[in-house]
C-alpha cells in the first residue's frame, strides 16, 4: 500500500475545512473577526476591569488551594515568630501559612487584593465615562443596569473576601455587618442570627462567606460580565462624533488583527501593573493586625476604599433613633441599608428618568461631550461630590490625626459638607460646561489664537486668529456649526508645525530642511519676516 | 478619510467571484468584510518602501521587547525556585522575595505587552473600517410572526377554556415553589430561642446559678486593689472560653474612677434608675460593645472621661452612665452590676440589665 505523504503545508487549511464541515463556522467567525471597534482611550477603562477580573480568577484559584475557611480555634505555631502561642481561628492561621509558608503565597495574596481594588476602581471610572458621555442612553439601558449591578456584586465579592482571613480588621468589618443586619426593621434579628448561625461571630460565617466568595458571587459576576460583553457585541460600541461617523455606522479598526492585538497587549500591561503593585506595595498585612478578638480594635480601622463611603455615611449619621410602640429603628439603618438601597435604584433608573425628562425616545450611538449636556454633567458632579464627602468622612479619624484637626470638627464638617458641597459642585460644573461651550463657539466663529500679536497703526495690539473656515467675499470666515466633536484650539492641532524628527541618537529619516527666511517654508505657518533696520525714511 | 493608496469601490454590492485567480489575498479580505457589512475605507502599510532604516528600527525594538520578555521570565523562574524565601525576623533575603517576584513578573508582562502593542501600532497596516449598524426594532413582519408563534402556544394550551387544568396547575405548582424556600429555611436561626441578644457570658443562670467572676484576658480574676485610680482594664466572664470570640458580646471595661469622677457618677446614677447600685465603691464596669455598630468602644480619653469607639467615633461619658455625647450612637453603654465575692474578687451581681451592643427592632 502506498503511504500517503503528510503535507504539512496543507495541514492548517485541511483541518480548518474539517472543523467547518462539522460546525459551519466560517461565516460567523469571519463576521466576528471583521467586527469594527472604534478607538478612544476612554474605551479602555472597562477593559481594565475585565482584565483585573481575569487576574482575580487566576490568583483566587491559587489561594483557594491553600486557604482553609475554618473557625476552629487553634494556637499558632508557624513560621512567623511574633504570633506564636497566640490563639486564633484556623482561617487566620491558614492565611498566615499562605503568607509565610507557601512559596510565592504572599505575592499571590497581594496580587489578589490589588487586583480587587483595581477591579472596583476600573468599574467606577468606567461608569463615570459611560455616564458623562451619555453612553447609557437607548438602546444601552440594559447594559447600564448590568454594569451598575456589577459594581454592587463586586462590592459583595470584595467584602466577603475581606472577611475571610478572620484578622482584626475583617472581624471588625463583620461585626459592623452584623449590626447592619440587626438594624433592618422587623426581621433584622432573624436575618443576623440566620446568616451567622446564631450569635456573633459563631463558627459558620467564615465557611459561608467562603462558598459565597469562591462560587456564588464569581458565578454571578461571570454571568453578568458575559451578558455585559454579549450586549456590547450585539449592540456595537458607541463612538465619538467625528468625520464620517454617524449614528448609523461604526468607524474604527476591525477586531482582527488590529483591535485584538492592542487589547491583548493592554491585558499584559494591566497584568504587569497589578504584578508590580503586588510585589512592591504591601496590602492587608494581616500578621500586623493580628487575629480577630471581639474586645480589641485599633484606631484607623478603615475598610477597602470602595466601602469607605458607607463607613463615612455611618459616621456622619446623627444619633436619631426611632422608638415607637415598643419597637426600635436604629440610626444605623439609614446610612447602611436605606442609603445603599437608594444608591442602587437611582442609577438603575437614571437612563429612563433622563429620557422621560427630555422626551427622548431615539436610539443614540454617538457620544456626547460632557460640556454639551450641562445638566447631566452637573448632576454627575453632584453625585461624585456626595460620594467624595462620604469617602473622606470614612477616613476622617486619620485626617483628624494627620492634620491635627478635632475629630468632632471633622464629623461636623462632613455633615455640613454633605449638604453644601454637592449643590456647589452642581453649580460649578454647570458654569464650567457653559463656559467651555462658549469658548468652542468663539473659536469656530473667530478662529484659533495664533499667539502672534500685531500692533495697529494707532498703537493698539491685537492677536491674530487663524480662521477655521474659508473666507467669504468680505474677508470674514464663513460661520461653522458645532457638531459635537472637539474643536481645535491650538495651532499644533492644525498642523502648523513640521513633524518632529525621529531617531534617538541620530535622525533615522531625512530631517526637515532648515528654515530659510528668504524662501517660503514647508511649514504652513511661516516664520516672521526678516527684520530690517528701522530708519527714519529720509 | 478615503486614502488615495487604495481603490475604494463605494456602493459596489456585486458579489466578487472568490475563485477568480487574479484576486489578491487582500481583495478577498475586502470582499469578506464587505459581505459582513464592513467597508475598509483606508488601508495603508506603515512602511510603503520595505527595508528602510525606520522599519528596521521598529523591528529591532519589537525584537528587543520579546528578548527582554524571555530574560525576565527566566529571572522570575530562577528567583521563584532558587531564592531563600523563608520568613525570618529582620531584613534579610526573605524580605526581598516578594518584591523580586513582583518586579520580574511585571517586567516580563510589560515587555510582552509592549512588544504586541508596538507590533500592532507600528507594523500592522493603518486601517479605517466602517461598519453599518443594523440596530433598532425588527421589521414589523418579524414581530408579528414571532408574536403569533408565541401566542399560538397559549391558544393551543387553551387554559382559558380548560378551567380544571388552570386550577390544577396553580394548586399543583404552588407547593413546589415552597420546596426550595423550606430547604433554605435550614439556615433560619431563631434569635429568641435562647434570647441570645439579651444574654452575655455574665449570666449566672448559665453558670449553674453562681455569680460570674470577672477575669483578665490571661484568665486571672481581678481584685479591686489591683487597678489604680484612673486605670481601666478589659475584663471577661470567668467561664470556659469566656475571653474568646465564643463570648463576643461579653468584653467589659472595668474602670477605677478617681474620687471626684466617682462622686460625679454617683450623683448621675439616678438618671438611669436601672444602674442604681451597680457601682462598687469607685469602680464601674461598662459593656465594651458599642451600642452603635458593635465595635469595642475602648479608646479611653482620660482628660475628658470619655470612651471613644474608633469605628464611627461615638463618644460616651464615663461619669454620666456612659451617655453618648457625640457621634452616631444613641444608647448608653450598659453597666454591669459589680460586687466583690467572699474571696475578694470582682463578680457580676447579675447579667447586664439591658441588651448590650447594637440596636434592633424588638429591643424596646
From TrEMBL, chain A:
Q: How does it sit in the membrane?
A: Multi-pass membrane protein
Query: May I have one GO cellular component term?
Result: plasma membrane
Instruction: Name the gene that codes for it.
Output: qcrB
Show the taxonomic lineage: Bacteria, Bacillati, Actinomycetota, Actinomycetes, Micromonosporales
Which reactions does this protein catalyse?
Answer: a quinol + 2 Fe(III)-[cytochrome c](out) = a quinone + 2 Fe(II)-[cytochrome c](out) + 2 H(+)(out)
* Name the UniProt record assigns to this protein: Cytochrome bc1 complex cytochrome b subunit
Keywords, ordered alphabetically: Cell membrane, Electron transport, Heme, Iron, Membrane, Metal-binding, Respiratory chain, Translocase, Transmembrane, Transmembrane helix, Transport
Top-level taxon in the UniProt lineage: Bacteria
Q: Which GO biological process categories is it annotated with?
A: respiratory electron transport chain
- Record EC number: 7.1.1.8
Q: Give me the ranges of the annotated region Disordered.
A: 512-538
Which coenzymes or cofactors are required? heme
TrEMBL record, chain B:
Q: Keyword Ligase, does the record have it?
A: no
Q: Which domain of life is it from?
A: Bacteria
Q: Where in the cell is it found?
A: Cell membrane
What does the record give under GO molecular function? 2 iron, 2 sulfur cluster binding; metal ion binding; monooxygenase activity; oxidoreductase activity, acting on paired donors, with incorporation or reduction of molecular oxygen
SUPFAM superfamilies per the UniProt record, alphabetical: ISP domain
Keyword check for Lyase: no
- Which membrane topology term applies here? Multi-pass membrane protein
Q: Which residues form the Rieske domain?
A: 281-347
- Which residue ranges does UniProt annotate as crossing the membrane? 62-85, 97-120, 168-188
Question: GO terms for CC?
Answer: plasma membrane
Residues in a coiled coil are none
Quote the InterPro entries the UniProt record gives. Answer: QcrA_N, Rieske_2Fe-2S, Rieske_2Fe-2S_sf, Rieske_Fe-S_prot
Keywords, ordered alphabetically: 2Fe-2S, Cell membrane, Disulfide bond, Electron transport, Iron, Iron-sulfur, Membrane, Metal-binding, Oxidoreductase, Respiratory chain, Transmembrane, Transmembrane helix, Transport
Pfam families in the cross-refs: QcrA_N, Rieske
Cited function: Iron-sulfur subunit of the cytochrome bc1 complex, an essential component of the respiratory electron transport chain required for ATP synthesis. The bc1 complex catalyzes the oxidation of menaquinol and the reduction of cytochrome c in the respiratory chain. The bc1 complex operates through a Q-cycle mechanism that couples electron transfer to generation of the proton gradient that drives ATP synthesis.
Which family does the similarity line name? Belongs to the Rieske iron-sulfur protein family.
> What is the name of this protein?
Cytochrome bc1 complex Rieske iron-sulfur subunit
Give the organism, scientific name.
Answer: Virgisporangium aliadipatigenens
